[in-house]
Amino acid sequence: MAGWLFVITLVLAVAAVYRPLGDYLHRVVSGRRSNVVERGIYRLVGVDPEAEQSWGVYARSVLAFSAVSILFLYLFLRVQDKLWLSLGFDGVPTHIAWNTAVSFVTNTNWQAYSGESTMGHLAQMAGLAVQNFVSAAVGIAVAVALIRGFAARKTKTLGNFWVDLTRITLRVLLPICVLATLVFMVGGVVQNLSGGADVTTLTGATQHITGGPVASQEAIKELGTNGGGFYNTNSAHPFENPTTWTNWVQLFLILCIPFAMPRVFGRMVGQNRQGYAIVAVMSVLALASIALTVGFEVHAGGTVPQAVGAAMEGKEVRFGVPDSATFGAVTTLTSTGAVNSFLDSYTSFGGMMPMVNMMLGEVAPGGVGAGLYGLLILATITVFVAGLMVGRTPEYVGKKIGAREMKLASLYFLVTPAIVLIGTAAAFATGHNATALNAGPHGLSEVLYAFTSAGNNNGSAFAGITVNTPWWDTALGLAMLLGRFLPIILVLALAGSLARQRPVPESEGTLPTHQPLFVGLVVGVTIVLVALTFLPALALGPIAEGLS
Amino acid sequence: MTMLADRPAVQSTPVKSGMLDPHQLWRSLPGAVRKLDPRLMWRNPVMFIVEAGSVFTTVLAVADPSVLAWIVTVWLWLTVVFANLAEAVAEGRGKAQAATLRAAKQDTVAHLRDGREIPATELQQGDVVVVEAGQVIPGDGDVVEGIASVDESAITGESAPVIRESGGDRSAVTGGTRVLSDRIVVRITQKPGESFVDRMIALVEGANRQKTPNEIALNILLAALTIIFLLSVVTLQPLAIFSKAYQAAAPDTIAIDAHGVTGIVLVSLIVCLIPTTIGALLSAIGIAGMDRLVQRNVLAMSGRAVEAAGDVSTLLLDKTGTITLGNRQAAEFVPVDGVSAAELADAAQLSSLADETPEGRSIVVLAKNEFGLREREPGLMTGATFVPFTAQTRMSGVDLGTRQIRKGAAAAVIKWVGRSSDEVAEIVDGISASGGTPLVVAEKDRVLGVIHLKDVVKEGMRARFDEMRRMGIRTVMITGDNPRTAAAIAAEAGVDDFLAEATPEDKLALIKKEQEGGRLVAMTGDGTNDAPALAQADVGVAMNTGTSAAKEAGNMVDLDSDPTKLIEIVEIGKQLLITRGALTTFSIANDIAKYFAIIPAIFAAVYPGLDALNVMRLHSPGSAILSAVIFNALVIVALIPLALRGVRYRPSSASALLRRNLWVYGLGGVIVPFLGIKLIDLLIQFIPGI
């Protein structure tokens, strides 16, 4: 019952901020007036805020910014021992530094390291947390650029990346995070620069407990759908996520921006109902997934869960089964990847759900920005097939979906499955699956999960596999890098192609893309595409396990 | 073929669009086998993969023969052949038409005006030729001198001869047609090898067909799906090896052993998953779409134009001939000042007996129909002197002894009578206001009444326009009439808008304005002054009776010169796209059942729990895989008639169309293969070794 209340209040809260937050985001990305701080930043970086960028320039700006970020973060981590507040930790080893740099810049936040025993406070605050902000802003900026492409009337430009990045960071992410940090501190999340304390436990052993700027990190970890925990156990750690209600606030922060993005889409294309349609697709998929995950976990089969009365292995007692399962579903439906329970210990089908959530392509509602552009691509593909069935060249919010648009959209939906499947197959073909803890189908799931998480820029860990070896760090780093930037390039190219078009006016002969029929169709296409792509692999992993 | 050659072309090969003659499949088989050439297959990536897979399984079957290997191999080859068969059948229909057209082109000799005689194929643009009665016109051109009746049946299938004369809008002649009487001088306007007949042949043969924009986009989607499935199956292999090694005790089967999934089964899985159904039928759908136009005597100069027709959102229709019958007709007799209607009708008929204009004839007919007044032969009436219409008097009539009857424009007749009444003025104004034309009838010193002439809207036009509206297409009537008249007719016909007192420039401006707003415009035209607008329109249908400038400017030619056909063209364009979309949906939906057949067939031996996915309870792994492969091949053949005919299309809104097609092809695509595969499994389980 409490589990239902948890989910229902969450849904209501996210629904309540859909309009105000979406409208505010819309104002931020459409506004032209800069304040003093922003003008200072533009002058510092040498950017003309009035200059509009073509898709190519926009894409090059994203790539250049991200490349510099990776390089900077990599060096930062390598030399953290020479800087302040390192807590005496060494510089991070090469392959872990590479993996972590890529991971945080790509908004994946896959963690091949254990936070409290690897990173000093400065590396956490000035290195990782900064990327938490800007990688989220990059995602939103790219989504906004795609929307501008849909909304444009015969233009060549998509706005200015530097302006979008600055405004989104300063006007959206930062203020909400300040507020959220305070809320978390009230809730008992630690916020200090302490190096930690040695305490003697009940059993008499000595344990080192690290403090740190956790509350501030936590806020952007969730708001930016990043998911990289301060501590190794992430949101299961009592300093990161002490109570049920902080758990609720974390999920709310995760969901609020991805679910508000469709409103921005609706506003910018001048038809709010298009936004409602997209958010409906996201909601149907998300609610179904949460219901299934919670259902699989609550009605757990298997000998042990039935003996103890619930599938409690790997779950925190203070959260209980439904809240843990909801957290697991939400953080994989979005590209957050934070965990408050040990997914490896979930029931077979319960553990399959987070994997399926990510395989959907992170679109329900997905990462900040990334979720919307992923879903708009799926909607575009749906429009194409459905549009042919009504006898017209398919068009979506007035833009024709021709050969060029289809080429870009098709490549987009090829990229991530290709990374996941090739990566998984490569691990098995080269024997690197051996670092998985389990054999058989569960071991297969552990490997498949790792590549699914990296390729989709989720960062969630199934756990149960050792991935801080050079091979895994390199392979997963590449998966994250390609899984983030190839789609971004394709999305921006699509935006450029759409922007050049003159919109086609709507008529009775136009496929309506705001009605339940279309919503159902996009849901169907999303599920079928995923099922058809991943079913063979899933059959040998969680499905084989679950049916045995 | 000789039998065909001496009959009129298009009519001689009546291809019923709905029916597929089984013999046609058989006849096209050699062509289908010839198309197995990989250099040709490469054009269709989906089927190319199937062919490559077939080669691979053939090698495997030779190296390690088994019943399953050979049967799968045979059915994979059949899958490719069936796909080629679809295309060959579609092309075959066009080839028959092309042959008769070639026959009409024969070895014509051109008689140049300077007396030289050269083969028609050597004619250059600008050459001037003389064509006498009985000769075949050697090339496309304009009549520059003379008038002749021409038999165009070789092109249009219409046996009644048409008149072609120099100057004006009836000056264009087509190569391959025959002059029946008189002599004309023709200036050739075509380049060698680019005549109308040449283009027609290229069109119906389907050879070197250019892919249309939507077809290219769909091909990209299909290629992407193919890559996805290829990846998904190929990357399965290391996982399969791992799983088999883990369950070392599991027995080897025909589907999986220590080396992973066997080659035969892996290829079967790929072929079943990639969208072979639509991949096989895509090109046939395109060819058949063009073919449907040709059957309606419309020649599209490009496939692009046919697709654009489906996208049209504004239709410009000439009033005269398209919306209304060619001429105004008498609709009513309105008597005045106590004259009886019959008396007026009698006078009106008498005054019109010698009037051979359509308006005049319609007055005679109306009088006959409404008042039983028999038509009297002008020649048999004694003492009758007919007064013809002149531009000066603006009236015509008859003098019967002392009786003088006149009919004509209101002002002219009233002036002739010398006096009028308010009643007459009121009626005349009323008729004008309603869009009609008043003709006043008078006898010597008194006005008898008024004849109401009006444009007669063709039957069924209002319903057609309602249909268009439901399809989201705006209809605009183009007319030279004044706005008042135009508005009245527009309201009666039910068009959405009209352009009155239209000049060619107005038409062009209207098209550009619509296109500025992102709309695609279709129109018909025949005159030289229509040419700029025809060229500007996205779909410009020129009438075959029109000038060569008009035919050159448009991207379609209607051989029947029927402007209403524009509506059918739009429907054919839509049907073409819908057929592609529907079969794509069907093809993808099919995969669900195939997974349920093949995945448990391969892996249930390793993980017995996976047998729960064998929801169809198929006999054995071998029979399950084979059933899926056979179903996959047979469904292509089963859908060839649908691809050629096109899916049923009824004009309706986009939502209604989508809902219907989703039910039929989406849901049908999910269910049908479950039934089909189970049925095939029931039959083939008796094959030994399966």
Automatic annotation (TrEMBL), chain A:
Domain of life: Bacteria
Membrane-crossing residue ranges in chain numbering: 57-77, 84-105, 125-147, 168-190, 248-265, 277-296, 370-390, 411-429, 475-496, 517-539
Keywords on record: Cell membrane, Ion transport, Membrane, Potassium, Potassium transport, Transmembrane, Transmembrane helix, Transport
InterPro entries per UniProt: KdpA (IPR004623)
Oligomer and partners: The system is composed of three essential subunits: KdpA, KdpB and KdpC.
Function per UniProt: Part of the high-affinity ATP-driven potassium transport (or Kdp) system, which catalyzes the hydrolysis of ATP coupled with the electrogenic transport of potassium into the cytoplasm. This subunit binds the extracellular potassium ions and delivers the ions to the membrane domain of KdpB through an intramembrane tunnel.
Protein name (Swiss-Prot/TrEMBL): Potassium-transporting ATPase potassium-binding subunit
Originating organism: Paractinoplanes deccanensis
From TrEMBL, chain B:
Binding sites annotated in the UniProt record for Mg(2+): 526, 530
Domain of life, per lineage: Bacteria
Record note on quaternary structure: The system is composed of three essential subunits: KdpA, KdpB and KdpC.
UniProt keyword annotations, A-Z: ATP-binding, Cell membrane, Ion transport, Magnesium, Membrane, Metal-binding, Nucleotide-binding, Phosphoprotein, Potassium, Potassium transport, Translocase, Transmembrane, Transmembrane helix, Transport
UniProt EC number: 7.2.2.6
Annotated family: Belongs to the cation transport ATPase (P-type) (TC 3.A.3) family. Type IA subfamily.
Record-annotated P-type ATPase A domain positions: 106-205
Active site per UniProt: 318
Reactions the enzyme catalyzes: K(+)(out) + ATP + H2O = K(+)(in) + ADP + phosphate + H(+)
UniProt xrefs under Pfam families: E1-E2_ATPase (PF00122), Hydrolase (PF00702)
Compartments reported by the entry: Cell membrane
GO molecular function: ATP binding
Membrane topology recorded in Swiss-Prot or TrEMBL: Multi-pass membrane protein
Protein name in the entry: Potassium-transporting ATPase ATP-binding subunit
Binding annotation for ATP: 355, 359, 389-396, 407
Location (main, coarse): membrane
Lineage, uppermost ranks: Bacteria, Bacillati, Actinomycetota, Actinomycetes, Micromonosporales
Organism: Paractinoplanes deccanensis
SUPFAM superfamilies assigned to the protein according to its UniProt record, in alphabetical order: Calcium ATPase, transduction domain A (SSF81653), Calcium ATPase, transmembrane domain M (SSF81665), HAD-like (SSF56784)
